Amino acid sequence: MGSVRKDFGKYISLSILGMLGSSGTILADTFFVSNRLGANGLAALNIAISIFGLINGLGMMLGAGGATRYTILRAQGQEEKANQAFTLSFFTAVVTGIAFLAAGLFIPHKIAGALGADASILPLCTVYLKTVLCFAPFFILNHLFMTFIRNDGNPKLSMGIMVAGSLANIILDYTFMYPLNMGIFGAALATGLSPVIGLATASLHLLTKRNHFHIVPVRMTPSRIAKTAEPGLSAFVNEFSSSIVLVVFNLLIIKTTGNIGVAAYGIVANLALVVLAVFTGISQGIQPLFSQAYGKGNQEEIAYLYRKGRLLASAIGIGVLCAAYTAAPALVSWFNSEQNPVLQTLAEQGLKIYFTGFLFVGFNYLTTALLSATERAGTAFALSFLRGCIGITVVACLLAALWGMTGIWVAFPVVELGTMAAGMLCLKPRNSTAIRKNSQQLL
Questions:
Q1: CA 223, CA 220: separation in Å to the nearest integer?
Q2: How much is the CA Rg of the chain, to the nearest whole Å?
Q3: Can you tell me the distance from the alpha carbon of 134 to that of 141, in angstroms, rounded to the nearest whole number?
Q4: Which of 280, 235, 237, 241 minimizes the C-alpha distance to 392?
Q5: Which of 9, 167, 255, 415 is the most core-located residue (most Cβ within 10 A)?
């Protein structure tokens, strides 16, 4: 148990730092765009960035799913099948990325319109979407390698991948938008280049020959790909749900308060993405430890890890909510370059209400990570889907009709609280006689 305590701190702290680095790319875009292009630029960006939830979610699904299979199989001594899990994940990521690239080249304007961009911000949204979609293969592969490298025993480099990309993004954002005056295209280009730099960092794991995963011959069938990606379904839904929330909220807010409301939500949502990155870091950092313990059949370690993770998530949730109440005016003013009083008021109110949901988010992320790592991917997916797609859509529409903008802000904490209650039911003790399934069933 001593080694588990040590690994818990190392894996989670490095994973959190890495995910914070990832969220920094979008936050940097938000800061520079809001200060350079004002409320319209911020509204356009907030609509366009919803595509990241889908791209990053697929990258996390293929990474977390494949890496979970890889870790369990290696713990059981099945090296060849572990490498098959990597191979299936890698080639699926490449094909998926190319599909997004094609969409960016041929239909970015249609995607922008479908996401809710009106005539006044459609050109800005189209430019941003076209640029970042062309880099989709790099975003997906970046997530894939980050997860496999962490599960391959190198969490420091996994963190370094995200931090290197984010630091480069901040520098390039400033360079492209101020000295070079490239507008929103510059912001998108800086963001697109960040995973390229991340992958260059990831290559260190391969060049130093520390990697245990390799490409091996394997039949690429839909059923095998689905089985490999299955443990990552909850990670996909957790990430993709941020896009669902963005799109649903943007469409509701446009009807309620127009583009100024979308800009206010953009501030709240992008600050929320930073906090969500922390909880994602906890769940992704603990995932390989769950998988290792499960592969060895050690229920005591699983219980210990879950208990420690829950305490950490609770402490962070309380701290974040306190920060939202005490620092809301300062946080909002960073992104309100025009000093618009309506924008300031809307965003401050939203920050305080919306961030109440972070009291429950950590529990939900940990629960789905535990279920996925212990081969209950179906339950994890159902819980994540309830929370991130069905629940938030229904509740937001209902509360918006009842209370307008206030109802929209309240929807997030209400859904997270309901999901936590459902998660408690899912974690009730069950009779399990198959904690270590035959390795042939894993692929």
A1: 9
A2: 21
A3: 13
A4: 241
A5: 415
Tens of pLDDT, residues 397-443: 999 999 989 999 999 999 999 999 998 888 776 544 443 443 334 34
Kind plus residue range of the DSSP H or E element containing 58: helix 50-75
**If residue 204 lies in a helix (H) or strand (E), which one and from where to where?**
helix 183-207
Can you give the three-state secondary structure of 385-414, one letter per residue?
HHHHHHHHHHHHHHHHHHHCHHHHHHHHHH
Backbone angles phi, psi at 217, to 5 degrees: -60, 135
Residue 271 burial class via C-beta count within 10 angstroms: exposed 0-12, middle 13-18, buried 19 and up: buried
Ranges of the chain with pLDDT below 50? 431-443
C-alpha distances out from residue 264 to 79, 147, 288, 366, 392, Å: 50, 33, 37, 30, 19
Q: What is the pTM of this model?
A: 0.71
Backbone phi, psi, residue 24, to 5°: -65, -25
Is residue 245 within 8 Å of 382, Cβ to Cβ? no
Start-end of H helices in 76-151: 79-106, 108-114, 122-133, 136-151
pLDDT of residue 435: 38
